[in-house]
Amino acid sequence: MPADSGSNPRHRRKTTDAGFVLDVRSLGRAPGSMKEVHRNLTTEAKIGLEMVGIPVGAQVEMDLVLQSVSEGVLVTGTVYAPIDGECSRCLEPFTDELELQITELFAYPDSATEQTTEEDEIHRLIDDMIDLEPVVIDAVGLELPLQPLCQPDCAGLCPECGVRMAIAGSGHGHEILDPRWAKLANLAVHNGADGAAPNQSADSDSEEN
User: Distance (Å, rounded) from C-alpha 102 to C-alpha 90?
Assistant: First the structure.
């Protein structure tokens, strides 16, 4: 399932060396040339799935290496980000940290790779700029679980009363009465509330006579 970014930025034109956009003109298209990029940025939209993801306004850290190769620029490195989620068992909010390993080739516009691949098969450089946002969106979508948990052993909610089992404790439980005996139980409760049972009242009248 694709991550939710609020848009499809795969081939959106970006010309500013900021955020997820990287300027690679200094590499000069010389195979073997490299540079390191260390960047902190703030997300402008949620990146992730419906129940868990990198929230808006999160601080994302990128440690990357950009390397010029014959067909384009190879981007490798690590992306760190906080995530917010809702547990799929107990429905409680939780936070965690996400670490993504990135390895992606961005093809030069006039390279053989660019000319022999479909538009969505590989990322491309646009005006010597790399937009890493769609790569991060795809990586987050693959890394996050569809059914997130606050803890691996989360016990969820009590099916009878809905209380969180983590709060209720191991001794929490409910007596389940067989429906075949439910009417008799209700009758016993009713008689107890009214006083003596009918047969007891009859015995009492007999003794007085």
Answer: 32
Sequential pLDDT tens for the chain (209 residues): 445 544 444 445 556 778 999 999 999 888 999 999 999 999 999 999 999 999 999 999 999 999 999 999 999 999 999 999 999 988 999 999 999 999 999 999 888 887 787 777 788 898 999 999 999 999 999 999 999 999 898 887 777 676 776 676 666 766 665 566 556 656 655 665 555 544 554 454 545 54
- The one-letter amino acid at 160: E
Q: Which two tokens stand for residue 62?
A: 């990128």
10 Å CB burial of residue 33 (0-12, 13-18, 19+) is middle
Residue 145 class from Cβ within 10 Å (0-12 exposed, 13-18 middle, 19+ buried)?
exposed
Query: Both ends of the chain: CA-CA distance in Å?
Result: 84
pTM above 0.90, yes or no: no
Q: Report helix, strand and coil shares of the chain as percent, to nearest 5.
A: 25, 30, 45
User: What are the structure tokens assigned to 191, written together?
Assistant: 């008689």
The dihedrals phi and psi of 159, each to the nearest 5 degrees, come to -65, -15
